[in-house]
């Protein structure tokens, strides 16, 4: 199979996810800024591969399957890194990743039955808010690494992060519930 540019950009996101996780996990000067830049570049590849696939090269079955998977790996890397850094509790991240794995499983089941499931409106909203939350944390960390601000160490800020993460978790779980309800027919034992 020949890889076209959109599919290569999709695959690059797996590499970006690994580099991003290393920047979150390994303390070194500029790590917070590097993690922000890498995540930002990965997010740009997501926008660019979608544009190229729709407007220039056409959508491929590989892209339709791997693009959302690459997004899930990237966001999972961020959320797992946030647990390691003490930014988010593990139970929130467990719910988020469980939802992503269940939806991916449903998509694979649909493919086995000859159906290609697209993301719904709730799934798109979930992705937007996850990305906004992740980027806000990464920007805050990058700014704090250069200009330490006492508010960012306050209990008020920690509560803001906790409740924002909780809202993202609830939205993520809700979007999964809606997705399963809309595609419940695929869970039947019939072949098609």
In brief:
The protein has 192 residues and is an all-alpha fold. Helix content is 78%, strand content 0%.
Output the keywords.
192 residues; globular; mainly alpha; Four Helix Bundle (Hemerythrin (Met), subunit A); 6 helices
- In whole angstroms, the N-to-C terminal distance is 28 Å
At CATH level 3, the topology is: Four Helix Bundle (Hemerythrin (Met), subunit A)
The unreliable regions are: none
Number of domains: 1
- Named at the architecture level, the CATH assignment is Up-down Bundle
Q: In the CATH hierarchy, what is the class? A: Mainly Alpha
Mean pLDDT: 86
Total strands: the figure is: 0
Strand content of the residues, in percent? under 5%
């Amino acid at each position: 199979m020949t890889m076209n540019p959109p599919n290569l950009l999709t695959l690059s996101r797996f590499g970006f996810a690994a580099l991003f996780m290393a920047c979150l996990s390994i303390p070194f000067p500029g790590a917070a800024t590097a993690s922000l830049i890498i995540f930002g570049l990965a997010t740009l590849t997501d926008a660019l591969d979608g544009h190229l696939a729709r407007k220039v090269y056409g959508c491929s079955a590989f892209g339709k399957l791997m693009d959302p998977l690459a997004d899930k790996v990237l966001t999972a890397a961020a959320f797992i890194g946030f647990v390691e850094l003490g930014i988010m509790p593990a139970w929130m991240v467990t719910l988020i990743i469980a939802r992503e794995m269940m939806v991916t499983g449903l998509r694979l089941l649909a493919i086995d039955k000859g159906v290609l499931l697209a993301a719904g409106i709730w799934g798109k909203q979930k992705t937007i808010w996850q990305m906004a939350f992740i980027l806000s944390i990464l920007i805050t960390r990058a700014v704090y690494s250069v200009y330490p601000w006492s508010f960012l160490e306050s209990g008020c800020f920690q509560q803001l992060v906790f409740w924002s993460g909780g809202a993202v978790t609830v939205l993520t779980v809700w979007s999964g519930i809606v997705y399963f309800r809309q595609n419940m027919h695929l869970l039947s034992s019939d072949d098609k």
